[in-house]
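Reviewer comment 2.1 asked that we show a complete input and output for one of the modelled complexes. We chose the nickel (II) ion case, as it is the one discussed in the main text.
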Amino acid sequence: MAESAPPAPAKTQLPQKSVQELVINGEELPENYIRKDGDRGILDVPLVEIPVVDLGLLASSSTSGEELEKLRSALSSWGCFQATNHGVTLPFLDKVREVTKQFFALPMEEKRKYAREAGGIEGYGNDMILSEQQILDWTDRLYLTLNPEDQRKLKYWPEIPEDFRQVYSLQTWDILHEYTIKLEMITAAVLKAMARSLNLEDNCFLDQCGKRPTVTARFNYYPKCPRPELVHGVKPHADASAITVLLQDEVEGLQLQKDDQWFRVPTIPQAFLINAGDLVEIMSNGIFKSPVHKVVTNSERERTSLAVFYLAEPEEEIQPVDSLVTESRPRLYKKVKNYVDIYFQYYQLGKRPIEAVKI
Ligand code: OGA
Ligand code: NI
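Response of the prediction step:
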């Protein structure tokens, strides 16, 4: 692995302004946000009905057969599914959506208290500028480590909005803590069901991720953009995770690529959109797809989302499960650890990181 790794990225520096400030100030689109690819008419692509999987049915042995097959089929074709009946109530999901919106609506001085530091990853900010040619995404983010708990950097966890605290007698990070615990259960159940759907041991994907898997949260804010066709909300990418759990608001924007065609992903208020990431594609020896996706902005409405990435423990080795390597399905991926490091290096070079581990 080491000899094929690309050079380390240039020293990081913070961009001058958040995307939100560019919008508030009514500035011209800065050159470094304008896409150079020729892809136009981007908002006008077909809507796709992503398969809906009932997690409650998956859990019970009498009803799981058909649902497992739905899960397997969704992940091997689209690489994602809409998860319903997951045990988190709609009012709680709405609360998480609300606090996300309220955070990004805070005055800039307040948000800057949580600003990412130069060279760091966690905190509030927009794209790190790593090279002069880089095209920036039309988004501001708050990026936090949720697990392992002793790695949380609470100085970046917002303490407001106040009304949120009054209603629930909790601080923002208490809501986030509760959300983390709920997602721990959901991600474990989904990773087990994924294994079962391939007739594997329940824990074979979970075990590879280690005893202390890293779980991170990315709160995404996509301000309205006067010229949405000229920018990316988020550039096309696949996730570095084993799986990602996305909570969308009611504004569409996510698009998914399948067979070189882009599709709009609908938003379902009570559902999580769960997608396979590169680690699951590797562990399943390519049976489950880590889908390429992107976010498109619009000029009418801002959009927020919350992506939670279930990653492996950095030092754990990830590789295709033995029994999924057969004569008719040869091994597609090498062993890999510290995938997140490889991921960012390749991503910045505009390459698909999973290429780095293909045999
Ligand atoms: C991501 C991502 C999608 C969205 O954060 O990796 O793909 O809808 N987000 O914000
Ligand atoms: Ni993503």
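The radius of gyration is 20 Å. We note this here for comparison with the apo prediction described in Section 3.2.
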